[in-house]
Amino acid sequence: MIKSMLKLGIVLSLFASGACLAMAIVYSITGPVIKTQEEQALNDALKEIFPDADSFKDISKEISSSDPKIQILNAYEIKKGDTILGVAVKATGPSYSANAILLTGINTDGTIKQVRVLQLSDTPGLGANAANQGYYVDKARKITFTGQFIGKKTTDPFIVKDDVQTLTAATITSRSLSAIVKGSGEAASQYLSRKGGAR
Amino acid sequence: MNQKTRTFLQGLVVENPLTVIMIGLCSSLAVTTSVANGIGMSLAMTFVLVTSEVIISLFRKLIPESVRIPIFIIIIAAFTTMVDLVMKAYFPDLSKAMGVFIPLIVVNCIIMGRVEAFASKESVSNAFLDALGMGLGYTWVLIGMSVIRELLGNGTILGMQIMPETYQPILFFILPPGGFLVFALFISLNLFLKKKWLKSSWGCPDPEGGN
Amino acid sequence: MPVALKIFISALLINNIILMRFIALCPYIGMSTDVKQSIGMGFAVTFVMVMASTVTWALYHFVLLPLGLEFLQILVFILIIASLVQLVEYYLKKSAPALYLSMGIYLPLITTNCAILAVTFDNITAAYTFFQSIVYSIGVALGFTLAMVLLAGLRNRIRTAAIPPFLRGNPILFVLSSLVAVSFMGFAGLIK
């Protein structure tokens, strides 16, 4: 009885070990690739928002969100030489289908520099248009969903259909993303005011 | 037709996993909102199906009856993980678009079902053919559905505009209700094809020893 | 509105796991022939789902993450779910044989219930706290039960209906689901 159970246990362990070994091998090859990709994507996004910058300092530990639904994944202090240009916050929050991840750049004067959608899996044709640079929420002035946040004060109310324009038939996505931008903006402003603002 | 060909062809229409046996539905309806996703999922699923069936068939004499389910799970999970990792590394956008459905391949009833019913009892070559046939049966339904859904719901195929500019996309098809409806149509289509197939000489139940 | 309540309502109605996300269709189609059966299945799923969420959450945050073994997530989670189901089955057999007999067939099926694995993964990707993941699981499980009960009721109704020949059997079930899904889309604006 014990012997047969032991034998079963050994067989199971052998298969499990074999499986883990195979997976570990694949992971050792793909892991670094995945990491580099994520870093590359982040660097590209940061460069796009702050083209003049020459250094990013990770300040993720010094910054936090006051909104429980919004989580700050990473935050960076953007500098050019010795001058702080602003802060970039990578934050996530619930959206229509899954969590969305946005990268928000905030200037030292408390206004938003730019918003970039890093991850959004909402309905194509509706919520997904938030990331679509060819889709305008303001067709007359050709402003995209993320474009509308440029120059916006972090102290604004961020109420959809009030000071934030929605995506057609995608109010939930609009609300969710605007909440993420608001949370990012507030957290960044708090950090910047602690640091004494622009030098 | 010989036994081997029959094994392969079963999964295409007569025993199509999605529309006839009705298994593996989870991962299918959700990813058919775009052809790119449909193709990605078909490839991923077929890969895990083929590798799992082959490995399990290879080791079938060494897998004790009483712990076979956990061992099947371990093997299927290992291959699913590999697919997930490879996709994250080399096809990150596709991987993000498909989200949780790639890991869900591990509980895809098709794989567990075929492995239990077939691979654990048949030779490696038979298991391979069965997996390929089932995989292809899954693939044609998936790609068919995603072509219809993306074309009618977005006017594009693989992101390329196919419908004329004036075509107003019918969003319904991309949304969940549309998915259910298109799938209903495919089940009907498959039933129709199955009837024709079984009537024709190809589908005739063959006596022992082939045609 | 407290975050937990939002998570709950979203899981139950707005993002209903079956009607909006297409997950767990196999048991949905296969087991919804009877309202009572559906409720029974719902109970079993709720129980396993909450347990699975708690155990996998803890294991991920206290073992896998600190050790950098996240790539084992798929394997570990599914094994935990399979073991939990075995345990539940064993325990039920011993302590509540009547209950076991009536639920008997569903239990092994719950292992391959896509919803359970999906929820355990969601807890991680949405970075829920321990409490939030429990709330989420209950919401999803109830949403699953709701969808199944609805379909079971509908199936009862159409038993005597005149259905066109090429839609008889499974196709009509999907057409019905399509209609129910449309009605569920109406919940979209429910919470701010």
Kindly describe this structure.
- The complex is a heterotrimer of chains A (199), B (211) and C (192).
- Helices cover 37% and strands 24% of the residues of chain A.
- Chain A is an alpha+beta fold and 199 residues long.
- In chain A, a hairpin with a 4-residue loop joins β4 and β5.
- Chain B has 211 residues and is an all-alpha fold.
- The N and C termini of chain B lie close together (5 Å).
- Chain B is globular and about 60 Å long.
- Chain B has eight helices and two strands.
- The C terminus of chain B is likely disordered.
- In chain C, 74% of the residues lie in helices and 0% in strands.
- In chain C, α3 crosses α4, α7 runs antiparallel to α8 and α8 crosses α9.
- Chain C starts with a helix and ends in a 7-residue tail after the last helix.
- Chains in contact: A-B, A-C, B-C.
- Chains A and B meet through α1 of A and α4 and α5 of B.
Number of helices of chain B: 8
Distance between the termini of chain B: 5 Å
The percentage helix of chain A is: 25-40%
The geometry of chain B reads as globular
Average pLDDT score of chain B: 83
Class computed from helices, strands and strand pairing of chain A? alpha+beta
Number of strands of chain A: 7
Helix content of chain B: 55-70%
Uncertain ranges of chain B: 206-211
Kindly state the mean pLDDT of chain A as a whole number? Answer: 83
Instruction: Give helix and strand order of chain B, one letter per element, not per position.
Output: HHHHHHHEEH
Measured by DSSP, the beta-strand proportion of chain B falls in under 5%
Major beta-sheet overview of chain A? 5 strands, antiparallel
Q: What can be said about the biggest beta sheet of chain B? A: 2 strands, antiparallel
